[in-house]
């Protein structure tokens, strides 16, 4: 799997390169500025891009803008965005086109190599991965004004949170140490209570949940 | 008889019934009140100042002068107050601040070096002459005609023969009627003149007592205050940041280093324990990062650095537990300090609204017009918000003051509450 990596801090870039190579990824390019990233994304046709939000020369959200632009040029291009802080605003922009293949994580998640690599793979496969912090914010905000959420059992809330982060039923089952069948039942209940359309496609499901949490539909 | 009709015609010709009459009466009474104040106060202040300053060379003046000059200033302040209350004339006050514990020598010469002291001193003789006369005229003009009418009504009989009323020599009933006629003319004049005389008195006070530099001095005073505020807040901020770093991230990193040291020694002997400590070290580093993130957000929110004020406010709104709508119209970006001040002001106002108003909707409008950033935060809560001392809103006001910004709170009981802020700035 070919990866384009954009990160301006040498130490972190180097660490990410070694981490990904250790997990059998091929690093197509490891760049440190916005323009370099744009060229790499356009020219190298990677399977997945791992991008830091803030890049030189402007040190604004150049990385995010380059990623969004590349996805406009090539819809569905898998992009995993890393940042020192997560903002719902950015999450919305990444999710806006609704095609999946998007990830948005805190840089700290790199500490847990297994989880991080798993996230890269899921994004590359067209899934959606959201940082637990974003989900927490969405949940707490919705919970303040939302009747349907109140009707969920604590266990269902747990499942909803993991589902919103973009995990599959199998992963959630592993996480909560229950059978996959139990999780399937939970998800069916959740979708019924939130009156969402049930779908077999994992990613469509995640996007529906995220849209619900973000806008209340 | 026709005089009567004439005088009654005066009342109606002004077309406002008794209102001007009451205004004139009020002005007259105020004029009367001012006369003794002007005369006694000014003469006293003037003489005391002269004597006190004259006694400076022999030392007594050093003790008395600060007292006397403080008294003069109090007197002048009193008159400034009257000018605003009675005449609507604002006279700026621009005394240099004096150190509280300065010795008499420094106080005396500090006061004597202040141009405002000499303005006060110049004003006293003007006040005891022209000031007194204008005040006295304001009082006497509406009163004088009454004597004329009294003379016509029969007072002329008991007056000494050849009594002068104005320029009329009263000898008999006919000339007494002339006196009444003159009184009526004076009364007519008084109706128009009296309020203007009183106003002229205050204008005179303002002209001599206020200085052309008053505005400038006022501005300097405001700048001094806001600068002190800015320095204070930034010093407090730095202290807070230092403490947070010291007790938070720094302490955690130290603990992590210790854990790593222990792991090194345990690797061979007790790998199980080492693994445990490794997990702990990783937790510590994650916690340190979380703390640093919070700290950074408090110093300068990353979204603000990356996107500017509009999106930073949008991101802020997304974090609110209350439905918040944001409308932004900014063609460019303001300077970073202004952006930060505006952001934290909005943040504080929002926090306030969420905490106290019980609103279920908030609207934020940010735009730039006429060289100023204008922000309005409206909520449909229960109202009753006030900029009380020590409240969050007062802090916002101070913070904006550093940038010559202003804040207005409209919050009737029952709501809605609207907080508007304006910060002069250019967009790039």
UniProtKB/TrEMBL annotation, chain A:
Origin: domain of life: Bacteria
GO BP of this protein: phosphorelay signal transduction system; regulation of DNA-templated transcription
Modified residues (4-aspartylphosphate): 52
Keyword Glycoprotein: no
SUPFAM superfamilies registered for this protein in UniProt: CheY-like (SSF52172)
Domain annotation HTH luxR-type: ranges: 145-216
Response regulatory domain residues: 2-122
PROSITE patterns reported in the protein's UniProt record: HTH_LUXR_2, RESPONSE_REGULATORY
Name of protein: Two-component system response regulator
TrEMBL record, chain B:
Repressor keyword on record: no
Record Pfam families: HATPase_c (PF02518), HisKA_3 (PF07730), Sensor (PF13796)
Keyword terms: ATP-binding, Kinase, Membrane, Nucleotide-binding, Phosphoprotein, Transferase, Transmembrane, Transmembrane helix, Two-component regulatory system
Keyword Membrane: yes
Superkingdom of origin: Bacteria
Catalytic activity: ATP + protein L-histidine = ADP + protein N-phospho-L-histidine
GO terms for cellular component: membrane
Bilayer-spanning residue ranges: 32-52, 58-76, 129-156, 176-194
GO molecular function terms attached to this record: ATP binding; phosphorelay sensor kinase activity; protein dimerization activity
Enzyme Commission (EC) number: 2.7.13.3
Residue ranges of domain Histidine kinase/HSP90-like ATPase in the record: 337-427
Protein name: histidine kinase
């Amino acid at each position: 799997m070919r990866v384009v990596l954009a990160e301006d801090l040498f130490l972190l870039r180097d660490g990410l390169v070694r981490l990904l190579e250790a997990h059998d990824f091929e690093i197509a390019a490891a760049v440190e500025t916005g323009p370099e990233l744009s060229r790499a994304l356009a020219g190298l046709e990677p399977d997945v891009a791992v991008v830091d939000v803030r890049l030189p020369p402007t040190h604004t959200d150049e990385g995010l803008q380059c990623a969004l632009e590349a996805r406009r040029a090539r819809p569905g291009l898998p992009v995993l965005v890393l940042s020192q802080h997560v903002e719902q605003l950015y999450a919305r922009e990444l999710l806006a086109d609704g095609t999946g293949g998007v990830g948005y994580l805190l840089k700290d998640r790199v500490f847990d190599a297994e989880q991080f690599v798993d996230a890269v793979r899921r994004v590359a496969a067209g899934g959606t991965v959201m940082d637990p912090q974003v989900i927490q914010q969405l949940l707490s905000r919705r919970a303040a004004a939302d009747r349907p959420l109140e009707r969920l059992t604590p266990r269902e809330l747990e499942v909803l949170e993991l589902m919103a982060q973009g995990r599959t039923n199998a992963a959630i089952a592993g996480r909560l140490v229950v059978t996959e069948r139990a999780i399937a039942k939970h998800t069916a209940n959740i979708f019924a209570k939130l009156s969402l359309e049930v779908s077999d496609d994992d990613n469509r499901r995640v996007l529906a949940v995220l849209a619900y949490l973000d806008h209340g539909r | 008889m026709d005089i009567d009709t004439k005088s009654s015609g005066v009342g109606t010709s002004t077309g406002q019934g008794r209102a001007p009459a009451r205004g004139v009466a009020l002005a007259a009474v105020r004029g009367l009140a001012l006369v003794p104040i002007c005369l006694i106060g000014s003469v006293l202040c003037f003489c005391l100042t002269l004597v006190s300053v004259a006694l400076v060379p022999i030392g007594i003046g050093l003790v008395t002068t600060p007292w006397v000059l403080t008294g003069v200033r109090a007197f002048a302040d009193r008159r400034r107050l009257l000018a605003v209350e009675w005449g609507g004339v604002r006279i700026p006050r621009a005394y240099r601040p004096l150190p509280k514990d300065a010795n008499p020598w420094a106080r005396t010469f500090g006061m004597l070096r202040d141009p405002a002291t000499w303005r006060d001193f110049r004003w006293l003789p003007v006040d005891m002459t022209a000031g007194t006369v204008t005040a006295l005229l304001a009082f006497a003009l509406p009163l004088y005609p009454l004597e004329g009418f009294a003379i016509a009504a029969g007072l002329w009989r008991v007056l000494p023969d050849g009594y002068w009323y104005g320029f009329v020599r009263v000898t008999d009933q006919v000339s007494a009627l002339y006196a009444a006629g003159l009184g009526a003319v004076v009364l007519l004049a008084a109706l128009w003149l009296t309020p203007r005389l009183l106003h002229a008195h205050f204008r005179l006070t303002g002209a001599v007592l206020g200085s052309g530099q008053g505005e400038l001095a006022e501005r300097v005073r405001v700048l001094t205050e806001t600068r002190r505020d800015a320095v204070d807040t930034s010093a407090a901020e730095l202290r807070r940041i230092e403490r947070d770093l010291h007790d938070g991230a720094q302490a955690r990193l130290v603990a992590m280093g210790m854990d790593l040291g222990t792991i090194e020694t345990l690797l061979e002997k007790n790998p199980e324990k080492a693994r445990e400590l490794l997990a702990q070290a990783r937790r510590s580093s994650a916690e340190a990062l979380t703390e640093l993130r919070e700290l950074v957000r408090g110093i300068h929110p990353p979204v603000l650095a990356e996107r500017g004020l509009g999106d930073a406010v949008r991101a802020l709104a997304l974090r609110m537990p209350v439905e918040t709508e944001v409308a932004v119209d900014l063609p460019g970006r303001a300077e970073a300090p202004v952006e930060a001040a505006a952001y934290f002001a909005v943040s504080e106002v929002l926090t306030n609204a969420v905490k106290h108003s019980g609103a279920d909707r908030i609207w934020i409008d940010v735009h730039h017009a006429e060289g100023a950033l204008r922000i309005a935060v409206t909520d449909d809560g229960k109202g009753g918000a006030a900029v009380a001392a020590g409240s969050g809103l007062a802090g916002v006001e101070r913070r904006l003051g550093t940038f010559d910004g202003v804040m207005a709170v409209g919050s009737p009981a029952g709501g809605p509450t609207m907080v508007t802020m304006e910060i002069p700035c250019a967009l790039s």
